[in-house]
Structure formats: structure tokens, C-alpha cells
Write a structure and sequence with these properties.
Elements: H1 7-10, E1 12-15, E2 23-30, E3 33-40, E4 46-51, E5 58-62, E6 77-82, E7 87-94, H2 96-101, E8 107-110, H3 119-136, E9 147-159, E10 165-175, E11 181-191, H4 192-201, E12 206-212, E13 215-221, H5 226-237, E14 241-243, E15 249-254, H6 256-264, E16 270-273, E17 279-284, E18 288-293, E19 295-296, H7 302-313, E20 322-329, E21 334-342, H8 350-366, H9 371-375, H10 393-399, H11 401-421, E22 433-434, H12 437-458, H13 467-476, H14 480-487, E23 498-499, E24 511-513, E25 518-520, H15 531-534, H16 541-560, H17 567-595, H18 606-631, H19 637-649
Parallel strand pairs: 8-12
Antiparallel strand pairs: 1-2, 2-3, 3-7, 4-6, 5-7, 9-10, 10-11, 11-13, 11-19, 12-13, 14-15, 15-20, 16-17, 17-18, 18-21, 20-21, 22-23, 24-25
Helix pairs in contact: 8-16, 8-17, 11-17, 12-14, 12-18, 16-17, 16-18, 18-19
């Protein structure tokens, strides 16, 4: 222990006063290493509160078991209990979240670039540099989890066009709670003007300051450097294989579309595309689109699997064509590191289009007295949505034919997607499967867990919520049993329904508008779920309700983010958001149901169809409420409105 922790032999002593005189508390500090010892001097068990305000944000890690204890909170008071004559010793570790938010970059010094992964430098990367870098990276979505450790489990040199090399790393991230995850990271070294430009334009891509052989520069995310981007596309065109000493390998492959293009196009230009929260997207000459996966796993990647199935087997023309991939190969399996597709020429995504439509809608609402519309009963229902042509003239003028037409097209293409996904009766990975009571009970069990977690959250005080939303959250917090009763219908009888592979993360932002039609992208599923979970077969009505939810969020976004109107006027517009969302989701749903009429994956019985739509909508809204209350309080109003509406409708409405 003394050899591992130098503070025991060389550190200074500092006693910390404790109200309980029978407990001795002290620290030993050597450089950045802090050891905390709490000792019970009594023959009886003791409890003590210790003032650790000097170590706010630190995490005590027990020296023997390596168990990480909760962070020292803002007030600094930490509670311990000890058995007779017992003691506890901890190393106090800095919370990497606090470091990640700081502006000062850590520094690393090596004699040559080849020393980057030498044992001592590798340890410094794993313990000091990578935790902070991950927590400031947009694609690292588990920021709420406390990182227990990071290990560079494998690496490879990636040859660059200039004769140098970058390092391709696999990072095993272990959390205090939950399953470990693996991330793919390419790192490169920049100096001089290139380093300065990167720090100015993309500071989130910089891991640390780094001196290599006396030359100052930065260690950075290689996907933000042109040399690495060029190496990836040329590697795919040349079917590059990097063999590693441990019998693993990295392979980059591309089909003839890429090979023919690269043969005639010597200088392929690359640019980073923003907007993908869980991955990094790169465009090449407006001809190819490369998605580099950050979170990876040794199993089939659903995005690649479904993309290839739809475009190569099912003949589905409304998804980008597969061109190539990057893989890390092991003895019996592999990890997908990236996927290359043909670039789709487009005029923006579905979210931008609908947000523009809702802004135009708000202008029309403000230009006339439409207060009587709010008092009218909404037309149509989940199972019998009303079409645009069946609306009264004033509603058609208000909503707009362009909005209605696009919503209906999205419904039609969603139906086409599900029909294609259900088309192969022989492939076990895609063959549709019937519902069973056992499966339906498991659905309810997972929903029950989500309800429990969400209601535990909303019962707490949330000072960040506005007064109105805070009142609604408090009112909702007592309706847990109502929600569970509503959801319990999912296993009241065996449903005549089918589950199949679905999109899994379906919303307006996943749609590209080409001018004449739409293209559906990103079949990777929910980034918060494991790769295995994303490949599970589910009811396609989940995709339908996810898209309906997306329309509702866009409707409220048009009002909540409108900076041109005073707050009192915005409040008056909220009911018009619901009106827009109700009818536009109706146009989408009507086109979808017309498109899948007679298909086995949609229940024939109207009451079963309605029940499933209601339950999947409610399940998603419960999940959203949990997230919004914790991380985006202003948006909690959207899932609240959906939950309130469903509970008000009741099972039969």
C-alpha cells in the first residue's frame, strides 16, 4: 500500500476536526494525491459528520475494495459510520466533470509520437485526460453516470497521407453503476497553425496540450483533422487492412461506387456535419456520407444491418445506399466502427421543415381572431384520424395544404418502410413474430419500472421548473396508479399483432427532404440502449407514436423558442400548439393506416389498435418526462400535455 500511495510515506499530516471526539479524521497529501483516514477510537460503533468542504466535488475511493463512494456535495458535510475500533481509508479523486468544464487544458510531454501509448503515458491518458475529454464531448451521452475507470483496451496505428500515423483507440469505460461501454476514438497530433485553428474553431476536439520532442501542440480527436478524414476514405477505396499483434485487425472496405469515384477524383474534400448527437458524420464531395460510430460493441450494428437489408434485399428506395464500412475484427466477431453511404441531395430535414411551417401557422393565428377555434371539439381520433380535405375551410386555411401534404407523405413512407422490414419471411433476424402473453407481460414489466423511476423523480422538489409547470408536475406526481392502470391493458389479452425490426429512434430529424420525396436515415435505434436491445423486434406502432411525439415537440418548440413575442402572448398561443399537433399527426396517421391496411403487423380490431397507440404514446411520454424534469425543465410541458390528454381520454376514447 505504501509503495502504491506515496502520500503514506511522504505526505503531510492534516487533522480534520470532527464533532464526535471518539473519531479521528486526518488526511495525508503528497502532490495531487490525497489520502483520507477515518478511525473509530471507541469500543462501540460510532457515527460522525466530517467537514470535507475543501474537497467539494471529490469522490472518496476505498483503498482496499476500490469502491467509489458518493461525491462530496456543495455543503461539504460527509457522513460516516464505523464499527468498534474500525477505520476506513480512502483516496480522494477529483470529479472529472468539474475538470471537463474548466478552460485550462492538461499538459502531456513525450519525447516522440511513438511513446504515446507507453505504460506511463497510457496511464496518464486513462486517469487524467480521457475522463475530462469524454465528459465535454457531445457524443458521449452518458454524462450523468460517474466514470469509475477508463482503459485503452486496444489500439492500432492508422497510416496518414503525409507519411505520419494517427492512433485508433478502443476505450473501455466503466461506470460506478451500470454496464461498461466501449468507445472508438482516433487521436492525432497537431502543432503550429493547425493546432491554434483547432483550439479556436473546435475546442471540444482537443484532449490536452502536448509537447512532442520539444515541439508544442495539441493531442486531438483525429476526426477533426483533414489527414485522418482523407485516410479513412482512401482506406475504404483501397480495402485497407491493418493487422495487429493480438491477431485482431481493422478493415476498411468500399464497394465499386467508391472505387470508381476515387479512381477519377484525386482530391476528395471532407467536412464535418453537425447534428448527430451520438456519432460523428462526415461528408465527402457531396457524394458520400460517412458515419463514424463512437459507442461500439462486439455485435451486429443495427444501423448497418437494417440499411443493407432495406437497400440491398428489400429494394426500399427511401434510404441511403450502403457503400462501405470500417470494422475492428476479432477471432469470432467484430465491431462496426463506421458506415459509408451515398450522400442524399436534400433541402433540409423534416424537423426544420415542420418548424418553419409552425412559425407560419403562428403568424396566421396572430393575424386573425381565432379564439372560437379553441372552444371547438377536435375532429378525428387515433383510429379514425381526419384527412385534410375533410376539414372545414377555415381550418384548412389555418393549417396549410403544404404542411398537410408533407405529413401525409411521411405517413406513407413510414408505411412503406414497415412493409419492407416485414417482407422477408426466411431471414430469422427480420422474420416477423407474433405477440404472446408472455411478451406482453414483459412489456408491462419494463413500463412499470420506467413509471416507478419517473414518479420517484417528479415527487422531488425541482426549483428549475417554472411555476405553472411545477404545479402540473406536482399534480401529475399523485397519478402513478392511474398511469399503471392505463398501461396494464397491454397484457389484458393476447393481441393479434406482430413485432418486427423497426427504426427505433424515429423522429422528424431523421427525414431528409429531397424536394420530390423524403429519405429515412439512421436506423441505429435508441443511442441510450445497448446494441443488443436495439436489434430486438418490436411493434412498428412504436415508430408511429415516436413520430407523433416528434410532431408535438415541434409544435411546442415553435412557441417556446419564439423570441419575438412577449410571454403573455406566448401563453395564449399554447392551446394552438395542441390544435396544430392534433391535426398534423392526424394527417400523418391517416396516411400510415391507409398504407398498411390489411398488414399483419397492425391489429385488425379497432380497440386493440387504439389501445396499442395510446400505450406506446404514454410510455414514451413517461420516459420524456423523466428526462425533461432532470435536464430540460422548460420542455417538461410537452410530455405533461400528452400524458394529461391520454389519461383524460380514457381507454375507450
Amino acid at each position: 500500500m505504501r509503495k502504491k500511495y506515496k502520500a503514506f510515506g511522504r505526505g503531510d499530516f492534516k487533522f480534520i476536526a470532527a464533532e464526535n471526539s471518539k473519531v479521528l479524521v486526518f488526511t495525508r497529501t503528497y502532490r495531487d494525491e490525497v489520502i483520507l483516514v477515518v478511525a473509530n477510537l471507541s469500543k462501540f460503533s460510532q457515527a460522525v459528520e466530517v467537514d470535507l468542504s475543501a474537497y467539494k466535488g471529490y469522490a472518496p475511493v476505498e483503498l482496499v475494495s476500490k469502491n467509489k463512494f458518493p461525491l462530496v456535495k456543495d455543503d461539504g458535510i460527509y457522513f460516516f459510520t464505523l464499527g468498534p475500533h474500525a477505520f476506513q481509508s480512502f483516496v480522494l479523486e477529483k470529479n472529472p466533470t468539474a475538470e471537463a468544464t474548466g478552460k485550462t487544458l492538461l499538459e502531456l510531454s513525450i519525447n516522440s509520437w511513438d511513446e504515446l501509448l507507453s505504460p506511463s503515458v497510457k496511464t496518464q491518458l486513462e486517469t487524467d485526460i480521457l475522463p475530462g475529454f469524454l465528459l465535454k464531448s457531445d457524443w458521449f451521452i452518458n454524462k450523468s453516470k460517474f466514470i469509475y475507470s477508463i482503459e485503452i483496451s486496444n489500439h492500432s496505428k492508422l497510416p496518414l497521407p503525409d507519411g505520419q500515423h494517427a492512433y485508433w483507440l478502443l476505450l473501455d469505460v466503466n461506470f460506478e453503476r451500470g454496464l461498461p461501454e466501449t468507445y472508438s476514438l482516433v487521436v492525432n497530433y497537431l502543432k503550429d497553425v493547425a493546432a491554434k485553428n483547432l483550439k479556436d474553431v473546435s475546442p471540444q476536439a482537443v484532449l490536452c496540450q502536448m509537447t512532442v520532442g520539444g515541439e508544442e501542440g495539441v493531442l486531438c480527436d483525429g476526426l477533426f483533422t483533414p489527414e485522418v478524414l482523407k485516410a479513412l476514405i482512401t482506406g475504404m477505396a483501397d480495402d485497407l487492412r491493418l493487422s495487429l499483434p493480438d491477431r485482431t485487425s481493422i478493415t476498411l472496405n468500399g464497394n465499386n461506387d467508391l472505387k470508381n469515384y476515387a479512381f477519377v477524383q484525386e482530391d476528395i474534400k471532407a467536412r464535418i456535419y453537425p447534428g448527430d448527437p451520438a456519432n460523428t458524420s462526415i461528408g465527402y464531395d457531396n457524394a458520400f456520407f460517412l458515419k463514424m460510430y463512437r459507442k461500439v460493441d462486439r455485435t451486429t450494428n443495427a444501423d448497418v444491418e437494417i440499411t443493407r437489408f432495406l437497400t440491398e434485399k428489400a429494394g426500399f428506395p427511401y434510404a441511403p445506399t450502403f457503400v462501405g464500412s470500417a470494422r475492428w475484427n476479432f477471432d469470432n466477431d467484430f465491431m462496426t466502427l463506421g458506415m459509408l453511404q451515398l450522400m442524399i441531395e436534400n433541402h433540409g430535414d423534416g424537423h426544420s421543415f415542420m418548424l418553419e411551417r409552425i412559425n407560419n401557422y403562428i403568424e396566421r393565428v396572430l393575424a386573425r381572431d381565432l379564439s372560437d377555434l379553441i372552444s371547438r371539439k377536435l375532429l378525428g381520433s387515433l383510429t379514425q384520424p381526419v384527412g385534410f380535405d375533410d376539414l372545414p375551410p377555415d381550418l384548412r386555411d389555418l393549417l396549410g395544404s403544404r404542411t398537410a401534404g408533407q405529413a401525409a407523405l411521411i405517413g406513407k413512407r413510414t408505411a412503406d418502410m414497415h412493409i419492407a422490414l416485414a417482407s422477408d419471411l426466411n431471414d430469422p433476424d427480420f422474420r416477423p413474430e407474433a405477440f404472446s402473453l408472455h411478451y406482453q407481460r414483459s412489456l408491462y414489466s419494463s413500463m412499470q419500472s420506467q413509471v416507478r423511476e419517473t414518479f420517484d423523480i417528479i415527487r422531488k422538489e425541482h426549483p428549475d421548473l417554472s411555476e405553472l409547470v411545477g404545479i402540473e408536475v406536482k399534480e401529475m406526481s399523485v397519478r402513478r396508479n392511474d398511469v399503471l392502470t392505463f398501461l396494464k391493458r397491454i397484457y389484458s389479452k393476447r393481441l393479434d399483432a406482430v413485432k418486427l425490426r423497426i427504426h427505433g429512434n424515429y423522429h422528424l430529424g431523421q427525414l431528409l427532404l429531397t424536394g420530390k420525396d423524403i429519405v429515412i436515415t439512421d436506423f441505429g435505434g435508441d443511442p441510450y440502449k445497448t446494441y443488443s436491445e436495439r436489434r430486438l423486434k418490436r411493434s412498428p406502432l412504436r415508430d408511429v407514436t415516436y413520430m407523433m411525439r416528434s410532431f408535438y415537440y415541434t409544435a411546442y418548440e415553435g412557441i417556446l423558442r419564439n423570441n419575438h413575442l412577449p410571454n403573455d402572448q406566448l401563453k395564449k398561443l399554447v392551446p394552438f400548439s395542441r390544435l396544430w399537433a392534433h391535426y398534423v399527426t392526424g394527417f400523418f396517421l391517416k396516411a400510415y393506416l391507409d398504407g398498411v391496411q390489411g398488414k399483419s403487423f397492425v391489429p385488425e380490431a379497432t380497440e386493440d389498435l387504439q389501445m396499442m397507440l395510446q400505450i406506446y404514446l404514454l410510455e414514451k411520454a413517461i420516459t420524456d418526462l423523466n428526462h425533461e424534469v432532470k435536464y430540460a425543465p422548460d420542455w417538461a410541458v410537452v410530455p405533461l400535455r400528452i400524458i394529461q390528454s391520454l389519461l383524460q381520454q380514457g381507454p375507450g376514447d
